[in-house]
Amino acid sequence: MSFLPVQYLKELWLRLRWLSGRSRFHSELGDEIAFHMESRADELEQSGLPRAEALLVARREFGSRLKAAEDTSGAWQIRWLEDLLSDLRYAARAFRRNPAFAATAVFCLALGIGANTTIFNITTSFLFSEPSCRDSASLISISEGGNSSSPLADYKFLKDANVFAGMAGINFEREVNWRQGDSTRRFYAGMVTDDFFSTLDIPFHLGRGIAQGETDTAVLSERIWRSVFGADPAILGHKIILDSRVYTIAGILPENHRSVAGFGISPEVYVPVIHDDEYVQFYARLPKGMNAGVARERLRSIFAQIDAIRPKQDWKRADQVTVTGVTGFDMLNQQMPGAVTAFFLMLLIVVGLVLLLACTNVASLLLARASSRSHELTIRLSLGASRQRIIRHLLAESLLLSMLGALAGLALNLACARLLKNLVLPIPAPLRVVVLPDWRLMLYSLGIVFLSALLCGLLPALRAVRKDVNTALKQEERHTARTWNLRSLLVAGQIAVSIVLLAAGFLFLHNLLRATAMNPGFNISHTLWAYMRLVPDQYKDAGQAKQTSLIHTVLDRIRALPGVESAAVTARVPLNDNCVDEIGVRTDLSATLVPVRYQCNDVGADFFRTLSIPVLSGREFSSTDRRGAQAVTVVNESFAREVFGNINPVGHTLTLDFNGAKTRLVVGVVGDSKYFTLSEKQQLAVYEPYFSKDEPVNVKFVVRTVSSPAAYVKAISDEMGRLDSSAAVEIKPMSEGLGLALLPSRAAAVMLGTMGLLALTLASIGLYGVLLYSVSRRTREIGLRMALGATQSDVLRIVLRHSLALVGSGVATGLVLAFFAMRPLAFFLVPGISALDSTAFLAVIAVLGAVALVATLAPALRAVRVDPMVALRYE
Amino acid sequence: MLVLRTLAAGPLHGYAISRRIKQCSANVLDVEEGSLYPALNRMLLKGWLRAEWGISDTNRKARFYRLTKDGEKQLAAEAEEFKKLITAIQLVMKTA
Are residues A484 and A405 in the same domain? Predict the structure, then answer.
């Protein structure tokens, strides 16, 4: 006999086939045995016995037919599977008899499992997205000198070195203006090398990618194809104008395309790199047999060659060469800020708690069921069923429940994913996470099903068989006033856990309110920002002067509009754009280098007046602060205090310690404000004049209006369109433009608020269930008390006391738990809100108290309505 | 092994198998009916036998068992094993 797995699989296959044709097998076996006996009888008959006797002898000789049949089919059976199936069938029958119980349990589990799988699905889709391309395992992302993107010239050099089986370069952070008729809008573009699509081998919905040598083809994302071009199936070959150039549409990506950058980054269009001064991210396909370590060594020597030919002043390309995969933990560790990962981890923990709550609910329901079924179970035990068998049977019940719960939960999950698909995050980046059910989700759900089946079922099952058969059979256990049974403990635990979740939810809600109402240090109510993206080719050749004069003209026109108080040009709009520098600074007061980390911005004249940021000392920039004039700077209050101490910095000089940095004269000190997020700690800031530097093609303006800023959007947009019709214009009141700054608070408040509500729902169902059950078990006791003269209020007091004991101990434990569990959350909060926020705790206790009261009401009323006569007669 | 050997000559039905074994062993070995069918089914499961319905010589519907390639191999292996065992026992009986 061989133990080869092939043999085993063959047997398993035969067994399964047997399982499906079981009834035929049995009838055939019956025929066969009958034939056997008749043949024997024939033989006996020939030796002289009469037929009837011969048959009898044959039957006697054969022995028990039933036993033979059982042994024979035993050869084929997969014992555990059949037992499981029959247990499940039995459980299903039991649930059909008690649909209210089954529905409650499945509902609880569906909430718990649905929340879990949804968050798991989102987390894996976001953090571990598998790019849409061939064999992503052989793809690597390369960086030279620690930079995320590098010049095209280096890319070409590396490609010519011919180390890899293919290379692809892309700049994910480009934008292009799309002109159609009289309007212009901006697309997020991926600018790719002409080998990008062929190296990655990206699947297409329609058409093909940008091919070798092409400079005038474009690829559209499905989203743009659908929303802008109406999903026109005949779009291929059409011309579109992007940044004043004509492109032919070559292909449409599939709806569920995931880019190689991961984390949901998905450009709206792809166009080929045209200019040699472009920067791209490097991707390469490893040839067979080459691993990341070898690739890194090869790259190091190639980058050293480039260093020798085109040296950089401050750094070497070969110094920090990294090679990372494009999927999994490798990419996560390299490219994701820890806070985001921590946020998802926290969510997973929270939904884990919710599942725990759901399971305790079901466990408590099963406990109640088990004790009302104890009679049945003890009879089965005394008839010889093994304890193991009964435990298995009870576990099958909870397995069935959790399978049903998982099915409902997955339906919930799919609905959530559909909602999420249409969600546009208020982020100035093309971020769309494709959330689809995949094998990871299926595995996870399966794991959850078994875990929750065990969590729900094990305790009740073990308890059910613990009892002694004799005492249990004699009399159905009479329920006494012993209140602290296992179920009560479970409910108290539930209340404790939901206190923690609710408190976290309220904390983040409070956080959101505070963040929304927070004064960021500049005016939000009467300002708007206007964003004008110019087509680079139209200004590049004409030099900076053309753009400078356009900006001045735009400013003049806006300022001339009735109702506009002031307007200014700026490189960065606060709470929308980020720019952090970390460097040593020196002043004319001391020779020591002070290391500082500060926010930088380049702003035009009137910027501070427009945003109502107070000028505390000196002046703000004027139109004379420009290229060629004396280098000047404005710092914020915190910077002045950090670097100059108590001395007023106006009139002193400041030198930033990097190559070619000029010494600047500090001309003003302005008030502190928020720069990138509302939750940031107060940062230092350095402002420089807008026109003292090369100007970016993304021109941003801030405008102060007399009345509500929304009314000015159209007028400003028209002015800008008249001045340069090829520019993409986007204008928003400042209050609407804060989406990004509020995103962390909003996301946390929505997620944790939802989870808190879920937890509360589950805990109140649990509380209600326990009280109702205990009242029904104590009907006799209550009836007796009433017969002996207890009043309705006495009875009410009994139930209320029980409820109060449960809720009180739960709340007390929960508060202690929350006290410790909430501390790490401080990481996510805006300043001014402590993780141990007393408002949140008070709100939680109030809400929980109210819900507990409602959950107590029905059982209490039922207790009061107990008719002593009926109750006693029952005795 | 005995069942396999009986079937080596050609397909037989269950009753015939038990009779054949009894006859060949001069009534010494009596295969108990109760364990014959479970054994046959175990061998079906292992793939040593194949079963098909046919008509017996008494003109009744009967299930005939036939040896497969795997079954022949198994028979050869078991016969070899058995021969070794017998030789060993005989050796012990002679010398000890």
Answer: yes
